[in-house]
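Mods, move this if it's the wrong board.
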Amino acid sequence: PGAHCAAVGSQVEQETGGGVAEGKPHMGEVVTAFEVKGAVDYDRLVEEFGSQRMDEAMVARLEKATGMRAHHLIRRGFVFSHRDLGLLLDLHEAGKPFFLYTGRGPSSTSMHIGHLVPFILTKWLQDAFKVPLVVQLTDDEKFLWKGGGLDDYKAMGMDNARDIAAVGFDPDRTFIFLDTDSIDMLYPNILRIQRQTTCSQVKGIFGVTDSDSIGKMSFPATQAAPCFSTSLPAIFPSKADMACLVPCAIDQDPYFRMTRHVAAKLGKPKPALLHCKFIPALQGDSGKMSASEAGTAIYLTDTPKEIKSKVNKHAFSGGRETVEEHRRLGGDTRTDVAYRYIEFLHEDDDYVAKLGEDYRAG
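Not the wrong board. Structure tokens:
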């Protein structure tokens, strides 16, 4: 896919208004909608994807709009990029409604802690703005890309729905759905999106080739459709379009860059986005956690004993070779996986800062 994207780069830039939607290979780094590996250069992705940095001014504006201190994922820079968040806040300040949309591709019976990051952020956004949330479970996507039985992915989707619900979303404002159960609602807008999207765009953005199934060619419209409130009439009965904010990891940006391009053709509001960084695999910056590779991930169903065993056995350490050397030189919090997990997940800034200072001091 990377080589194919490079070959069609100029065409995709012209057609989708923002350059190649998949990260170009760079010193072993790969960031696509289907694969992430290597140490991710987030500054480079902002430039290549044409998104906007989540700077201090935008964080301050978000805090003013919510009347709340920004979530720790935002304060610590793990939400590093956005698309049109300022425009969405303009609408909010003008009293216009919006909704949240995020999702999960069910490829395992249990989610891992890396999957939680966008959902933790999304819960804070729902609590702060008191807005509806729709969560798409793409059992169809996993069936098309990974093989296996469709019923298996539906079952995984139901298991993942329980994990997602456990994050604590407002049940009166949250709708979680499987694509194969709700395709009838989505289908009219899927058709509208498909008619406005060319095969060359899908090939350029997602690396789909002539030897791939037609399902892979058509699927991106399915992930795009929930960005438009009219795709979910049972949830949003009004025929008026409502603005949408999508919190997601940066590897999902290609889908929504395509959606934003199509939205302009359909006369619908472009979805705004918030981009999250990846929690590293246990082995460090070899890529993000993988649900299909148990040695890289901590699952939500792991027991405390299993988590301790995985960290002790697999987690890359920023410590030194000997206790004496560690006391003298201190640890490296930039590479220590256990510390980086605490940075992502622990809410207390003072605790995280003190832990890091002590570790670096030996």
